[in-house]
Sequence to fold (327 residues):
Amino acid sequence: MKIVLLTGGQGGLKLFEGLRELVDPDSISMIVNTADNIWLLGLYIAPDVDSATYLTSGILDTSRYWGITGDTFNAFSVIEQLTTESWFALGDRDLAIHIVRTYMIKQGFRLTEVTRHICRALGSRGVVIPMSDTHVETHLHTDLGDLHVQEYLVRYAAKQDPEKIKVSSIEYRGISDARATPEALDAINSADLIILGPSNPLLSISPILHTQGVRACIKRRREEGVPVVAVTPISRGRAFTGVAHVLLKHLGFEPTVYGVAELYSDIISSIVADSSEEEHLVNKIRGRLGVEVILAGIAMNTVWDKTALAQKLLSTVMSRRIMGGSS
Ligand code: FO1
Fold:
């Protein structure tokens, strides 16, 4: 069975960890958000692509879901001494990967090719596909001005306290020129199951869906009967980690699993909601959006949690297929 998983950082990657316990990791293609990419100090930084690459290669620092486990920060301490652009910490081994990526991009290689090269060299098990080879940047219009998403999350520490910055709108800058890569479309076209991972709906999953060609391709596959399942990162009005519920609220969406289902309602057949979710929200998703709800424990703190969630998702979707439903 071939699986496509749309993902950003932490949430989607944790689901990958569960799925790879159950199916061959090389049959899982992750289409990864690149709209949090940024040029800093002359280096091309692709945080979500790197986290997916390091996870599939067994070297991700899973205490924070970015960077390389056990990495040192000697080069970064010198950068801190010499510049004011030191709000974004790159470890020494991570820095080496960035030097190679930037060099290859400047040589004319596509981000997809560079990522494939790095994955092969690191012995990756699982397929990592950037959503596009064209540079896209998410910007947030805030009470502090126009901020690149990394400035919002890291420099001004929205990760620690998302309520302290008021966001009035969001822009995926460059998205109208960004086409899905042939690799991303091939993966979607050959998938038996498409999953929208529990990553931030507005910062991670929406940029992928706004990339030219992706939404239409997923929609067509759903019409052909391929299950398209979202997993919410929000339970009882809060994201497990990160800023998802606060951003949804600031931007006028319902900061609940219903709000997540509504964002994806034109392409998904089911959504996985937390088993403790309020009944009226589950009924509203089924009644108003016509989207099936799968109830499961969505907290993913241990390998056991991650595998149990993946197991519930796979078994529900597959039993519905056998029973003759589209999902
Ligand atoms: N997150 C931080 O909170 N602080 C950092 O200094 C930081 C550096 C960093 C370097 C490379 C990388 O790939 C990711 C890094 N992140 C850092 C994570 C990143 O900001 C976000 O978590 C993702 O972009 C959101 O998915």
User: Anything to note?
Assistant: The longest strand covers residues 167-173.
